[in-house]
Write a structure and sequence with these properties.
- The protein is mostly beta strands.
- The protein has one domain: Porin.
- It is about 10% helix and about 70% strand.
- It is built from one helix and eight strands.
- The chain has an eight-stranded antiparallel barrel with strand order 1-2-3-4-5-6-7-8.
- A hairpin with a 5-residue loop joins strand 7 and strand 8.
- The radius of gyration is 20 Å and the shape is elongated.
- The protein starts with a helix and ends with a strand.
- The relative contact order is 0.20.
């Protein structure tokens, strides 16, 4: 038991006690980019939808130090749609759409390369709701699934950063990923 508790106690001590609290700071950000959908619409009488559209996110977080942060975000993945497609060769023409919104929470690890450039990795959960449509038949799907991201940021000043990020959401239907660029503001 002691072999299990001792490493965790050392880690907490290192994270909380040895890093100056002046590094801790809240932040907010906005990202806009491309949301990539893969939806199985066979249950609605359609085929597969593989399309993209504009996605956006608003997020906020708290950096405990320059390496570890907690973050939460609100996502709007807009709607990806196909105005006409054939479900089977020679079959009827259909239209299909998928849209998704969600709320996510992450643990963020940061590797500062220098004062301006940092790389980040995120792992967390996304609670999402999706609307699926084929012609006039609609369905909804929702869930809470794992979310992963890698990102890079460039600091113009200590407060203002430009960000680029790739996020993957392990949702079952539709599958979704987001590539975004945006800005982050650190409160100091």
């Amino acid at each position: 038991m002691r072999h299990f508790i001792l490493p965790w106690a050392m880690l907490v001590t290192i994270i909380s006690g040895s890093i100056p609290s002046a590094v801790a700071e809240p932040y907010i950000g906005l990202g806009i980019g491309a949301a990539f959908y893969k939806a199985d619409l066979t249950g609605l009488g359609g085929g597969d939808l593989d399309d993209s559209n504009t996605g956006s996110k608003f997020y906020g977080g708290y950096a405990f130090n320059k390496y570890i942060a907690a973050e939460a975000g609100i996502y709007n993945f807009a709607e990806a749609s196909v105005s006409s497609f054939q479900t089977t060769p020679g079959g009827p023409i259909s239209s299909a759409a998928a849209s998704m919104k969600g709320v996510g929470a992450y643990a963020v690890g940061t590797y500062p390369v220098n004062r301006e450039l940092s790389f980040m990795a995120k792992v967390g959960l996304l609670n999402w709701d999706a609307d699926l449509r084929v012609d006039n038949t609609t369905a909804t799907n929702d869930g809470t699934n794992a979310a992963f991201a890698i990102a890079v940021s460039f600091a113009f000043t200590r407060e203002m950063l430009a960000t680029a990020e790739w996020e993957y959401f392990d949702s079952d239907n539709p599958q979704l990923s987001l590539i975004s660029a945006g800005f982050r503001f650190n409160f100091r």
